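Aim 2 progress update. The chain analyzed this quarter is reproduced below.
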Amino acid sequence: MSTLTDEPQLAVESAAVRAWAEGRTIYVELHDGRTVGFPADRFRILAAATEQQLARVQVEVSGYALRWEELDEDLTVPGIVAGRFQLPPQ
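Predicted structure tokens:
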């Protein structure tokens, strides 16, 4: 059985409330309470970064981007959640 409604379904993209690094893994706490993590080595610039550089991640653009100022690297939070990485797993 299916039900139709006249109410539109709103798609809400994931947004970060905070981000941090533990070793070479970047973690992102999302606005809906989920936490996702990904290996820094899945992105070219982050793969070449030190753990100290990775730790300086900042949440930007109202939670929709991660920024590493020193590395001049930006990643979108929706892209991370969707699993869009530059490099294959090692």
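The first strand starts at residue 16 and ends at 22. The chain has one domain: 16-81. These observations will guide the mutagenesis experiments scheduled for the next reporting period.
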